[in-house]
Queue: 2 jobs
Job 1
Amino acid sequence: MKHVTIILAGFVSLLLSLYLVSNYEGVYLQRPLWLTLVPVMLVGAWFSMVQLTILADNVTSKLAERFIGVMVPALFAFVLLVLWQLTVTGFSVPKVLLPAPSTILTTFVTHIDVLSKDFAQTWLKAVLVGWIIGCASGFIVALLIDGSPFLQKGFLPVGNIMSSIPIVGIAPIMVMWFGFDWQSKAAVVVIMTFFPMLVNTLAGLQARDSLHLDVLQTYACKRHQVLWYVQLPAALPFIFNALKVNSTLALIGAIVAEFFGTPIVGMGFRISTEVGRMNMDMVWATILVAALAGSISYGALALLESKLTFWHPSRRSK
Amino acid sequence: MKRLTHPLSIDSLKNSQPAALLLVLIALTILWYLAAFWLNSDLLIKGYERRGMTWDVSRLISDAYSMKRPLLPTPDQIGYELYKSIFETKISSKRSLVYHSGITLSSTLLGFLLGAFLGIVLAIGIVHSRTLERSLMPWVITSQTIPILAIAPMIIVVLGAMNFTGILPKAIISMYLSFFPVTIGMVKGLRAPDTLHMELLATYSASPEQTFRKLRWPSAMPYLFASLKIAIAASLVGAIVGELPTGAQGGLGSRLLSGSYYGQTIQIWSALVVAAILGSVLVALVGYFEKRVNRRMGITG
Amino acid sequence: TLTCSALAASMSQAADPLTLQLKWVTQAQFAGYYVALEKGFYEDEDLDMTIKPGGPDIAPPQVIAGGGADVIVEWMPAALASREKGLPLVNIGQIFNKSGMMLTCLKSSGIEKPMDVKDKTLGVWFFGNEYPFLAWMSKMAIATDGSEGGVTVLKQGFNVDPIFQGQADCVSTMVYNEYGQVLDGGLMPSELTVFSYQEQGVAMLEDGLYTTEDKLKDSAMVDKLARFLKASVKGWEWVANNPEEAAEIVLEYDDTGAQTLEHQVRMAKAVAKLIEGNSKGVGYLDPAAYDRTVEVLMSGDSSPVITTKPSGAWTHDIYEKSGL
Amino acid sequence: MSMTADVFEKSDVLAEFNPPQSARKMITIEDLSLVFETNDGPVNALSHIDLAIEEGGFVSFIGPSGCGKTTLLRVIADLERPTSGTILVDGTSPEDARLNRLYGYVFQAPALFPWRTIASNCKVPLEIFGLSKELQQQKTDKYLELVGLQDFHNKFPWQLSGGMQQRASIARALSFEPQLLLMDEPFGALDEITRDHLNLELLKIWHETGKTVVFVTHSIPEAVLLSTHIVVMSPRPGRIAKIIKSPLAKKRTLADRESPEFVAVMQEVREALANDHRID
Amino acid sequence: MSMTADVFEKSDVLAEFNPPQSARKMITIEDLSLVFETNDGPVNALSHIDLAIEEGGFVSFIGPSGCGKTTLLRVIADLERPTSGTILVDGTSPEDARLNRLYGYVFQAPALFPWRTIASNCKVPLEIFGLSKELQQQKTDKYLELVGLQDFHNKFPWQLSGGMQQRASIARALSFEPQLLLMDEPFGALDEITRDHLNLELLKIWHETGKTVVFVTHSIPEAVLLSTHIVVMSPRPGRIAKIIKSPLAKKRTLADRESPEFVAVMQEVREALANDHRID
Ligand SMILES: Nc1ncnc2c1ncn2[C@@H]1O[C@H](COP(=O)(O)OP(=O)(O)OP(=O)(O)O)[C@@H](O)[C@H]1O
Ligand SMILES: Nc1ncnc2c1ncn2[C@@H]1O[C@H](COP(=O)(O)OP(=O)(O)OP(=O)(O)O)[C@@H](O)[C@H]1O
Ligand SMILES: [Mg+2]
Ligand SMILES: [Mg+2]
């Protein structure tokens, strides 16, 4: 029962710091004795996390493991938030610079209608459509290029150049071409997500075992069969890498693109407008939405990946 | 295996890199001119009609290819602008694109180095500590969902208040964008070793550090280079994003911004072209190191 | 600017350092400060000035809150909004007497008078610059949510392209900048209908100088600011008399190398008109204009920018101390 | 040494051996050499090989480790290109033979796909050749049973022992019933009894279907038991030291191993091997 | 190379067998079972194994493919955890034995690092154990020569034949001269002569250094030639069918294979194997 004690100790130290935050706003940092409680809290929280991890790895029930598995990052986030709150309130950081987490949360809840409209505009339209088209085209181009040395030699350098074009540069042009609505944002996302997919898929397609290729060659396989039977399975881990990296890149791209002209809805619009209005709490609430959406889509992809690449050494060794 | 990827080897011309590249470039140029005409003429016709002017096709064509602020400038307009701002201007001049590329490049490289380093360190931590994996990994991912342009000004303000100006704030934004692909790729790569190889080292009771040096690191190489290529491109984007808020301090980003601000499409496009060239040179550079490392590891072709 | 100020610092050890954060990139909109720097007016006042240019996402109040500047150039609405958010900004001198912002519309879209904008698409700047527009619409009782009989609002980028590409019927312009771009783009003044917010009675005070309350409690700082205001105003007066040379000076300080002389000269001339007409000269905040701004800001029906009447948001102390 | 290229021409001892159609050559190799270029200088893997294999023959390659057996098999399978010399497989180039899906190849390592179950691994060639689903299932069942893996259909390769993986890969090569079987130490990782069993099964298949088999092995008794001809190779550079024709009848049983002919052939092979043996 | 197989000066009497110190147990296994959980239900890989191996013993595991030999070896090496039962290696847990670098393991597959040359592959354990550069070079030279790869120092693994790769992996396991050798079919891919040579070398090393060897093989003659004890295993669930103690002297020559004791032991093993054989 050693770890339970340690976990409890960690929680107690966290609660203590919370108590300080809520009751001695602004003054406690001037008292050195209380200040030392902060590292105590950090160490306590760390031990809690270590013990929770061990617990999660040894627990037999799947449900319990899931639960504890969520607890650890939650605890980590909680510590960060407490530190954030401590700093903001303790040092009286102006609200126009950095609002406290509690303020952000309140704003999030009270403005949920505006935020959900923005989310629909930016994520459901621009990000999703752009991500799908961008990943699909990167993937297809990788397939074409991998199969044909001619295309590889002709297109790879050009493709490289075109995909090194920074988003911030293309965003205004896309607005020019595709208008103010989400289509131009989706176009930016397409261009942003294309390259990571291309590079990763190519690397993956080339990561096949040469013995496996020999096997297929003895069957006089067509190229598409080689792809299907060996290259694609071997490339899956790489492809998922790209899908995951892209799921975050896409959101950034769409939001950045909205800085260059939009209808008056959308997460990027909200951020830049509210910064101008000094409503930093609203800005951070939007960031919170972005973080939630990004994390959830990433998590979903990771889940799918573990289902599809169960055979890969990186999964089997665990 | 070799023959599988050489279905076209009969035709030697088709296999020559310059020929292939040239063909693609010519095709693209033609497409570009067509697109420029299509986009620009639309604009022109609107203008003609608004003013009730009479116009014919030859006038339209010559106007479409010589607009001062076209919707899509033609390659020759961009080429001329590039020539002017690269060769006809002193490198140290603020009107030289070389000067601005230099500014962007320095923060890109600094950010890339910091990002690659941070990314690798995080990956090592995550691979070796279950606690770090469980606690840190989700937040590494979440960090990337925060739109960089939203926090870039804050970073610059905060660092500026701490008297860090110049390339460091921009490099930090580059780092923020570039560490992520490295972390994700390396976590995967460091876990990629063959089970049998891991067991072999277990029989030697090799320390984690030895396992890392002798097995994990070499097997992560393909993943490392794939992510470094993405990271360096992301780093360039970060440097340029970082140049927007500090828009007046030079760099390709500020050229883009001021071009956009004053509607100077030709200026935007030439900055874009330079950025793209810079990006692909950087990616090619990573590719060059990849080849060298591969050769040392006995992987040919 | 970095190297300039560093150099200046090493040359005159004794001079008092002071940092100014601009609202936007280096251009003739801020010619007065650059002239004062270039011509040594600040040096004469024993000031070691650093001028930080802004950009699209630099909010000067954030910079001053973070300690990155001593004084900022900001518009009144943003300054008052920050004040309500707990950053006590105080106007210490008003530079622009008139608003330069206006809505530029195409006659071909059938817009001749204000009410004609109904059912049209309008490009508007946000980032704190949208208040005059919203106030104007609310004054005319036109909805801004794109509904029937209202207007469709686009967040306009940094240029006036939407009017050329037919994406908007009207775009926001500054008289000293974008309006010129509209003309450059091939539109004749005769093809355009221009609504100046100044004339529509919804104008707000634009470029002014702001600092925080705590800085004003420090008498040494007050003294520095007074000297700063004096030198800046001297710079502005110089600009009004020599717009062409002022433009050249601005160009010197532009690190992007993207500005053109022609453009900056035009801007300098237009800006010179905006600083004119103040009863007590450049730098004096007219309380009546302030009251009008506050009134407009509080009038927004659905979401007013500020909810309570601010107090102590301006002071004439610095102006008086500067001996202008 | 005389490089009697034509190993089948004057085969006369046994009536059952040398059926009429066997005059046709399945594989003809003339003056074939192969050099690998490595970072460390060239390696002469094969040097001046002459060999002819008749249709319906069962030819074993035997020789010290590293003498070029695998390389020669790979040349026949069009997995390596010879540096010089000519080779015909079924009257065409190895490439055409491969494209015609003439042969099945059992690699020295199992080479199973980790992302597929055993049964699904076996189906790979069948899917590629476009067999119907029922036929696929039928063949897979048949050959997995033959190699004794009937209970392991749904396991993944890494859940099998080394020998079981090798058997799965044999089943995969047999499943599409190719005309020519190229087998690289297929039974190397198997115990004696399993090996005997599979030897008999292979003989039965060979005998019933008239396939041509080219077989690499390290076991002298196995080579003698199975083959019509035993090709003894020797290393550095890899070449053919001797070709030994088996006097055994085509129908063989395990009991043949006790026969004096059998022992005599074994002795002959052993001597040929020892003659020129170097370890490398 | 001369194949006069007698590596020991004199073939001695039985007295030398069973030296006094051999009372000490190197490995003690009691009622050990291991179940693999798979997508397809549990697999009983080992069931109720009891076994004791004395220090200085040479014990072979023999049994049909898939009977659990590799699994048992992996349990000894602490690469698998038993589901139940106890096991002691050198008086400690397998984990401590592994952490003490007590044993060298030769895997069933070569498991060489593709990015390292052969010599550099051999040096991996030596680098890990922190030997000086000269010592590393010396050991590598010695053992690569022993397995006949002296000319292949600078080749990469994929430039070697299957048998050569396996020999490289043997050299790697021998190079750091561990107390206990765990070898999983080390000579499976080798020709008879190379195999005989390496058998003798292994016997010599064993004899000279008093190592304990646990050895998996499919070759009955090899098992009998090398071992002091032969453990015959049988499958589903994997268990020990019989343990046969060899009456042969500790010093052995290839010629012993002709002796009547040898043939008798071979027969005993063969019977034990056939007794309970099923293919899977
Ligand atoms: N990782 C695993 N997961 C599931 N089952 C396994 C795993 N490893 C081995 N097995 C099963 O355990 C049994 C014993 O396997 P093991 O590898 O020990 O056999 P073996 O005696 O070494 O056979 P061989 O002589 O063919 O190498 C087999 O039925 C095999 O399918
Ligand atoms: N890809 C390659 N590159 C360079 N050398 C090679 C390559 N493949 C094989 N060799 C060399 O060619 C020679 C013959 O190899 P091969 O694999 O044909 O031997 P083998 O007779 O099959 O041996 P074994 O019985 O050990 O499998 C060896 O010396 C080997 O080092
Ligand atoms: Mg071989
Ligand atoms: Mg085994």
Job 2
Amino acid sequence: MIDKRVASTADAVEGVRDGDTVMIGGFGRAGQPVELIDALIEQGASELTIVNNNAGNGDHGLAALLDRGRVRKIICSFPRQSDSWVFDRLYRAGELELELVPQGNLAERIRAAGAGIGGFYTPTGVGTTLAEGKETREFDGRTHALELPIHADFALVSAYRADRWGNLVYRETARNFGPIMCTAARTTVVQVDAVVELGDLDPEAVVTPGLFVDRVVETGERRWLRDGAFVGGVDLAGSPLVPDEPSDEEDAA
Amino acid sequence: MIDKRVASTADAVEGVRDGDTVMIGGFGRAGQPVELIDALIEQGASELTIVNNNAGNGDHGLAALLDRGRVRKIICSFPRQSDSWVFDRLYRAGELELELVPQGNLAERIRAAGAGIGGFYTPTGVGTTLAEGKETREFDGRTHALELPIHADFALVSAYRADRWGNLVYRETARNFGPIMCTAARTTVVQVDAVVELGDLDPEAVVTPGLFVDRVVETGERRWLRDGAFVGGVDLAGSPLVPDEPSDEEDAA
Amino acid sequence: MTTRIDRNALAARIAADIEDGAIVNLGIGAPTLVAEHLPEGAEIILHTENGMLGMGAAPRPGALDPDLINAGKQAVTTVAGASFFHHADSFAMMRGGHLDLCVLGAYQVSQEGDLANWSTGGEGSIPSVGGAMDLAIGAKRVVVMTDLLTRSGESKLVAECAYPLTGVGCVSRVYTDHAVFDVTPEGFAVVETFGDTTVDELRALTGLALTDATTGTAPAAEQTLERSAG
Amino acid sequence: MTTRIDRNALAARIAADIEDGAIVNLGIGAPTLVAEHLPEGAEIILHTENGMLGMGAAPRPGALDPDLINAGKQAVTTVAGASFFHHADSFAMMRGGHLDLCVLGAYQVSQEGDLANWSTGGEGSIPSVGGAMDLAIGAKRVVVMTDLLTRSGESKLVAECAYPLTGVGCVSRVYTDHAVFDVTPEGFAVVETFGDTTVDELRALTGLALTDATTGTAPAAEQTLERSAG
């Protein structure tokens, strides 16, 4: 019998070691495995390399992990946001290494790791500082850069429903990096709002087949889904909490 | 208003030119766009390069297209089957060029074309005659070969349901090559059993988003789905019509 | 003398160029305004790179769904015909050339179509690129929506970008508050001016030898201004 | 004197080695027999490379579904927990090392674990590879199920494959009708013999300097024979 359910988030993150590479799902706060990150903070592993699209918001979740000094390096596409003060401070103090990757290359590198691809050629980033030093090559008259897969020791992912085999479905844009991160880690840990009976998920609609998942923990209904208290980067009026992009020091529009 | 529906299979295959590369979905007979292939035969384009997992079965569908002398080259993984006599004859007569590709490399090369990847490194086939002459490279101590994308002028695909935007769902293992072929062609043509209203397909369960599809033709309920008359490579007792693989001239088991 | 149009009018001008049925990604920031001016009755499908096609308008205040956001992390809705997918599939759509149009902001655009919109490269600045580089090279057509001048009055249209590039030779058209410019093998061509702006004035503002490709009274622009006023 | 077991017994022997919870791909041909001998009560998930996990048994004769087939193009069924996916995702599972075990047929296996099972390279033969090369290099563990000898009595275990390779150094174990062999840095090791077969007889049949790694009475094999007989 296959039963990937574990009883607690503490059990779910058991075994993360100092120096591990940990992928964390989510785009902004949608799909961020909040409870698993909290458990990872409790668990205590340090010197981590984190793979996430962003580099933490506010004082919670990934930001709190950074704040505890547990992270050596971040691989991400969009670290700086209006509420990324924890990252900003550590980065400016030289206490955090940053590997900045264009978002699509980040996704494709994660997918490549899960798919057993040794490397691939992408046109994204060619001619920019982010492709400096990378090997380039022409295909069909267009210059491409060689990109390598990003493997992880652990992936922490938030999904919507799971069964005991680890089959997953997601909810709306909270899907984002989850399905590919599930494929790219040695141990994939998933938190879901609810576990359903085997056979309840439509085989045509399963997004992550169970073979990619090692542990499932049910974290229950998210209150903020109902009461709108946790609305990603927007306030209740829909105004962004993050500045327009690009808006580094100059107005890009 | 976006309405990708066309009235007939003849309209669906309009514009295929001599010398075009045409991807045809299906694995054996599951997911084979039978009506579109018939329409392509009627349409008359020749000197075609066909991309399909197989090289035709019996006397119908792709086999009939071959039999009319319309195909110059086939890119596939598994041409020879017990009922591939049309292919066998033409190949032995030197009238058909064959590019044999391991099935997973075939799928990944099609995916790469749709995903804008210039080339990728795969371990599959390394050290075999099918990778002879290919550039190789070590990643993590394992030798990989460089594979290039396969683009097509047209893709002919069979799906289960579509809406007028071209969003698709498939049915069971008839999904096979459909979703990736839809992404890799200049013009993607899809036959479906039924077109449903926009909004009737669950956004979480759409397999091929409509932007990959150019034309949709409704070919109606497949009688053989109900009466079991068209059962892929098996007879009604479930015995294979194709020999075990491998069984070229020697018993591999 | 009117020599500029405001952002809403500019967004409407851009929207008027978008064909029925187009698949469009609107970069975060000012380009998102374009969504509010899409032609009535047309079906234009909005892509958001965090994994959705068929993005709808902002939700009613009481109906926010934290799982349903756009690339700017703003709450959005879906329209009938929407679909969700993961990040690798979403960027495959881009990189594979399946989007018809992408509208981006810019720090600078060079006369060869190079785009700089992700970093000023300033000392101590923290770089953040997001999907900018993927968008810049991915869509079939990449256009820029921007003020012609920076706050300090410098032209964003330049001979060569001084800021770090986002993409090389990727921009085909620049919509500014003063005029619309096409990137051509001969450099920027003015295809339309707004208000009383003249091509000579634009040459003075940009310091570039602009080609005059305007066609007299620029009826499209007038029409658009009226529409945006209505 | 019993020196061989039949295919069903061999399939049962292989099945007895498969752990509860394993993700397994059974190559077409004889390896599909393994599915009929999986341990009662264990959950072993069968992958078929044409796009399904959770493959079930053959359907009842009246209940064939032409859209639901396995890689051998035989009609199959699904079990609760099944999922469907497209070919690129299916082979990504393989290539990415997500399958625990793959059982394949063979023409030849070399003492370095090279596998030849797709082509005899004969004059006028038509090559067909299918997913054989992907399976050979993809699973965490690749084992072979085969008769030890060809119909003409030649050993399929060889010093070096004469037939075109499917994969290099990919096989870890070979289950034959005479014995079970492991591929080791020192060449083939006999880990278990069936019936009265001796390691010396196997050396004579294969012409190879086999290591004797059997452990006396080989209880596992006896047990398996009983089970397959029952």
